[in-house]
Specification:
With 274 residues, the protein is of the alpha/beta class. It contains eight helices and nine strands. The radius of gyration is 17 Å and the shape is globular.
Length: 274
């Protein structure tokens, strides 16, 4: 299987609480797909709130074990696939110092900062939207991104900027970039000023949105405002979702004015042609 985009830079394995797939299975699938490289970005969401489930998920990572197995597998498959070491930080304003110290201690190749929690609640759960206007919930989510950027800005890219749209009661049927243009532009300008990129996350196609996260209009606007750093990832938690809809991702990037996409090695951007 040939892709114009040959790197998947957002994926999870059994080191993330919401995946049960061993790292090696993800690597083998990526090789089967003909990818050049992947980056594991395991979930780290400290202080994750209580949720309405029988078992409370714990989005922590055993980083020494993760690193040990990663290094073993990277060496094992070094002639077949370039495998890189990343993390997806679940941002909240009070965690800035914790994440700063973590990144000083651990030599990640790539760091995604994502908003999963909004003022103590995860919009993954319907309770977040209960008895509230969907538009108000979406606005609160975007406001929380700006709050997070005030307290922490050491990530390489901001993950799936409109993540909340995956879980809203109407998903993206009433959602557009223009409806939230002012705050989204403020977010994009803040990211560009801090030299933080965005990602094109094809998980939106998996969730039935018919669009990536963020949506095409946000990606286009990011480029219009001068944004240059954009990674591509499927947000796969199982092998069958690796490189999901990458053909669509390549077309969207070109439509939005990009002639390259970005991967990271040792926290340094590398630009690959489309």
């Amino acid at each position: 299987m040939n892709h114009i985009i040959t790197w998947d830079c957002h994926m999870h394995s059994s080191f993330s609480a919401d995946s049960g797939t061993p790292m090696e299975e993800m690597i083998r699938r990526a090789i089967d797909l003909g990818l050049c490289g992947i980056c594991f970005t395991e979930h780290l969401d400290p202080d994750y709130p209580r949720v309405p489930e029988p078992e409370q998920p714990v989005f922590s990572v055993d980083i020494p074990a993760y690193r040990d197995i990663f290094c073993t597998l990277r060496q094992k498959y070094q002639n077949q696939l370039d495998v890189r070491f990343g993390i997806e930080l679940g941002l909240q304003p009070h965690l800035g110092n914790y994440f700063h110290e973590l990144l000083c201690d651990v030599p990640f190749d790539f760091v995604i900062g994502s908003s999963h929690i909004v003022h103590g609640s995860d919009p993954y759960y319907p309770e977040f939207f209960q008895d509230r206007r969907e538009a108000d919930c979406y606005m609160e989510y975007f406001e929380s991104i700006l709050e997070n950027l005030t307290f922490f800005s050491e990530m390489d890219v901001y993950g799936h900027i409109d993540y909340i749209v995956r879980y809203g009661p109407n998903k993206n049927s009433e959602y557009t970039y223009r409806r939230y243009q002012d705050i989204l532009d403020e977010i994009l300008l803040a990211l560009i000023s801090k030299n933080i990129g965005i990602e094109l996350n094809t998980g939106g196609f998996h969730y039935g949105l018919g669009e990536p996260n963020p949506c095409t209009d946000i990606i286009r606007r990011y480029r219009e405002l001068g944004g240059e750093i954009i990674t591509v990832g499927a947000d796969a938690h199982a092998p069958h979702n690796i490189a999901h809809s990458f053909d669509k991702a390549a077309a969207i990037l070109r439509e939005c004015g990009f002639r390259y996409y970005t991967v990271f090695r040792e926290r340094t951007a590398e630009f690959l042609p489309l």
